[in-house]
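cache lookup: miss for this entity combination. No prior model stored, computing from scratch. Input as submitted by user K.M.:
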Amino acid sequence: MVPTLLGVAVATFVLLRVAPGDIAVLHLGGEGGIITQADIETERAKLGLDQPVWVQFVAWAGGLLHGDLGRSMWTDRPVSTEVSLRFGLSVELAILALVISLIVALPLGTLSAVARNTPLDYAVRVFSVGGLAMPAFWLGILLILFLLILFRWSPPVSFTPLTLDPVANLSQLIWPALAVGYRSAAVLARMMRSTLLEVLREDYVRTARAKGLGELLVVTRHASRNAVLPVVTLAGLEFATLLGGLVVTEQVFNLNGLGKLLVDAVSHRDYTMTQALVMLTAVLFLVTNLVVDVGYAWLDPRVRIAR
Amino acid sequence: MTRLARAYPLGILGGIILLLMMLAALLAERVTSYDPVSSDLLAILQPPGPTHLLGTDGFGRDVFTRLVYGARTALIVGFSGSAVAATLGAAIGVTTAYFGGLVDLIVERLSEIFLAFPLVVLALALVAAFGGGGLGSVILAVIVVSVPRVARVVRASALSVRELPFVEAARALGAGHVAIMFRHILPNVLAPYLIMLTALLGQAILLESSLSFLGLGVAEPTPAWGLMLRGSATQFAERAPWLAIAPGAAISLAVFAFNFVGDALRDALDPRLRV
């Protein structure tokens, strides 16, 4: 995990520094007037861009080890302040989306497997294919359109934190969570269906049926416990995908989260901000994978014995 | 043909949709008589009707025309991006699996770096590195994002093929490394490779439209589906809902079609993978 993170750090740093397009020019361009070469040089010196790339990297990586993410090259505010302002919103949104998709996917996948090749199964499968094909931002736009026409509701301009007013907060976040979570729900429902179908063919399920248990008990208590394991792994991976999906969805719903911050940073050539966000995503991604692995061992005794 | 259609109805449906899209993209000038770029201020936000099949946008441009030309953009990104990515990825995957050892280790570690991000985030960072926006940087981003994923799949299947007796037989007959890798191993990993390719195509189109939607992909006035959903789609939500519906439907239809074809290919080529 540590070598990967180091690689991520080096890769993003070098890639961004060799990028065409100069933040100094962009920065000065906002102020209007004629930009002289001297102005650009002083601006570059102010941002530390006149140093050799490896010196810049050592300075940045050194700060990183002390928990200092540097200052945004665009707003000149500390990166950590900008990130912490938005972190809660994005993580809450991702968790909400994952919870919704699990609530939807587990019963749907189970029903689809139990009622295999019935109209119900086909309906669930159409639902899953839709989730894979529909881009989250389009679903978001459709949701806004639908809410606007039916309820005359449009996304509020400002964000209400969960701690301030939970109801207002949830009523605001539920729609983007639905938009970004549909894909995950589709993927997870598909997985639930196929693993449950496999488990239902196993001997112990036949034994459970043979000793006279009702079908409901067989499915819920016996089969689904084993079927849910790969779904958990996938849900962990989906969490990471959800974080990526937020980049686009936050834009649609005008939410000021990490995704919007990244898009702005990229379009402003804000190197420090882009680096920090890319690193943060990689950390979240790797930690999620680790948690999934540990959680898997906790859920499945066979993995523990194998160690 | 009918037997094929009965065995893989969705695959054939997907194939037909793709064929129609490709034809429309190739013959865009014949399919529609409007210009996709120039605005017509006298025909702003016209509802769908006989003159404008899917209405017009905020600049008076015909939406259907922009959809057709947008298919060109999407398919160019999709095909060129995934063709290069698939070729590079296959070469890397087979080579690393064949030689193993240090080469394999280094490439694996490198690809782990690329796999440590959600797709969109990585693509965004790459677009930034390639100088932001433009068709070229989108295609490059698609390639870089996809290569490690293809290499992984190809490597995994090549690893098992490498151990099969016929590879040893080829070696005994005096075949060189290159010949063994590309004449003997590669043809035997084609099934997962082809499946991967169709998945990549759909993914590339999704990625292109997401980037364009964020304003960091294909730039105005080039017609692209993601771009059509940007700005005007929500701005005129009530007056012109067709602006929001048509481009998204096109994206979904294209991805649908690629997925269906991919699933049919998987069932046909590798029955073990059937779900």
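stored under new cache key. The CA atoms of residues 138 and 179 of chain A lie 8 Å apart.
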